[in-house]
Amino acid sequence: MPRASVREQIVDAAFEQFHRHGYNACGVKLITDSAGVPKGSFYNHFESKEALALVVMDRYGETRHLDKLADASKPPLVRLRGHFEALGQDIEDFGYERGCVYGNFSTEAADHIPAIREGVREALDLWTNAITATIREAQEDGSLTSAQEAEILARFLVNAWEGAIVGERAAKDGSSFATFFTVAFEVVLR
Amino acid sequence: MPRASVREQIVDAAFEQFHRHGYNACGVKLITDSAGVPKGSFYNHFESKEALALVVMDRYGETRHLDKLADASKPPLVRLRGHFEALGQDIEDFGYERGCVYGNFSTEAADHIPAIREGVREALDLWTNAITATIREAQEDGSLTSAQEAEILARFLVNAWEGAIVGERAAKDGSSFATFFTVAFEVVLR
Fold first, then answer.
1. Disulfide check for A138: which of A84, A144, A179, B161 has CB 3.0–4.6 Å away?
2. Are residues A169 and B103, on separate chains, in Cβ contact within 8 Å?
3. B19–chain A Cβ distance below 8 A for any pair
4. What is the residue-wise DSSP string for B32-84?
5. Domains of chain B (ranges, CATH numbers)
6. CB A180 to CB B156 under 8 A?
7. pLDDT tens digits, A113-172
8. Is the CB of A162 less than 8 angstroms away from the CB of B158?
C-alpha cells in the first residue's frame, strides 16, 4: 500500500490535534511534529493554519452521523435519537474531552477569523437542515404533534446539543447529555 | 480618589482580555500590557494565569444577572425571561462576540486544567440552582404546569443558552437567541 501523502498526514494529524487542543493552542509546529513531517513542508500544502482548519472542519462533518438521519428504515424520531446518541457516544469515548470541532472553533476563532466563522455557520446550517427535514417527517406522519416550526425546533436542538457539550466538559459525568435526551425527547419533541 | 491597586488593575485587564481572546490566546504579557503594569509585577499578586482565571470567573459571576431571578416583585417566569434577556443583551452589545466566560473556559481549558474545570462546574451549578428555584416557584404557583423535574429543566436551559451562544457567534444575527426564547418559553416552560 502506498504511504499516505504528506498532505494527508498533515490533515490526519491536524484533525486529531485541533480536536484535542483547540484552535489557538494548536500551532503549525505541533501539527507537523505530530504528523512526523518537517515544519517547512506545511506551506507546500496549505496557505495557512486557517486554510487547514477549514479542511479539518469538512472532514469532521463526514463523521457527524448525518447518515443516521436519512435512514428511511426507521421512524424519524427514532433516527433523530440515534443520531444524537451516536454523537454522545463519540464524546463519551473520549472521556467527555475534546468536545465538538464546530463548537470549539465557534468559541475560539469565529470572532477573529471570518473564514472560520463562515465555515462553522455553514456546517451548523447543514446539520440544522438535516434535522429540520427529519422533524418535518415526524410532523407529517403524526409522531410529532408540536405545531412549532420544524426549523426552529431543529436550530434549538443543535444549539442545545452544543451547550450540553459545554456542560459535559465541566462535569464529565453524563448529566448534561442525560438532561438533553430527557427534555429534547420528552418535552420539546412532543 | 486613590489609584486602583496593581492587583486590581491586573484583574480588570484580565476580565477584559480573557473575555475577548479566550484562555489560550491571552497570555500574562497581554494582560499586564493591557493593565499598564510591568510583566514582573504579575507574580507578586498571582501564582499563575490559572489562578487569575479563577478570580476572573468569580467576578464574571457577579455580572450574570442572578439578582433578576430573585426579584420577588415579578412572577417567576417573567423573571426568568428577564434574566436571559439581560444575558443576551450583554452579548448583543458586544456584537455577538466574546461569548460567555464559563462556556469559553469550559471549551478551551476544562480538559487540561482541573482547577478551571472545577471552577466552571461550580459556576454552572450555582446558576442552575438559581434557575431551579425559579422554575420550582412557577410550578408551585401554577404558571408552569410541566411535571418535569425543575432541576432537569434548569440544567437543560443553562446548557441550551450556552449552545445558543455557540450558534450566535457563528451567525451573529440574533437567530439563535430568538430560537432559544421561542422554544424555551413556548415549548419547554409550559
1. A144
2. no
3. no
4. HHHHTS-GGGHHHH-S-HHHHHHHHHHHHHHTS-THHHH-TTS-HHHHHHHHH
5. 6-58 (1.10.10.60), 64-188 (1.10.357.10)
6. yes
7. 999 999 999 999 999 999 999 999 999 999 999 989 999 999 999 999 999 999 999 999
8. no
